[in-house]
Specification:
This protein has strands spanning 2-7, 11-13, 18-26, 30-39, 46-51, 57-59, 67-72, 77-82, 91-100, 108-111, 115-120. The chain is built from no helices and eleven strands. Helices cover 0% and strands 57% of the residues. The chain has 121 residues and is mostly beta strands.
């Protein structure tokens, strides 16, 4: 069983910065892509940023130039540095990891429990 635990969510004023982290723990064999989604009430969960095990990154257009995703493979941890925050960034942020229980298995997606980010104007 693998768990993802997020931390760093908080309330901040517009223009401020926050850093989120997410640690994967448990019986980890392989981790592929890791990253972050966000969701507001009544809406679907949208990709914010992703990073492959090799370090290739992808961002939603709305956060390009403001958010930075990174990971520490030795610590099974993914980070999201958020700057120039806007009220529309307010959401529950969920980390995810693509996991495979063996080297011959396909990957499945494991989610964290979510952490609230609130940006006030």
């Amino acid at each position: 069983q693998v768990q993802l635990v997020e931390s760093g969510g908080s309330s901040v004023q517009a223009g401020g910065s926050l850093s989120l982290s997410c640690v994967a723990s448990g019986n980890i064999v392989r981790i592929g892509s890791m990253g972050w989604y966000r969701q507001t009430p009544g809406k679907k969960r949208d990709l914010v940023a992703s990073i492959t095990s090799g370090g290739s990154v992808n961002y939603a257009d709305s956060v390009k130039g403001r958010f930075t995703v990174s990971r520490d493979n030795a610590k099974n941890t993914v980070y999201l540095q958020m700057t120039s925050l806007k009220p529309e960034d307010t959401a529950v942020y969920y980390c995810y990891a693509g996991l495979a229980p063996s080297y011959s298995s396909t990957f499945y997606t494991q989610w964290g429990q979510g952490t609230q980010v609130t940006v006030s104007s």
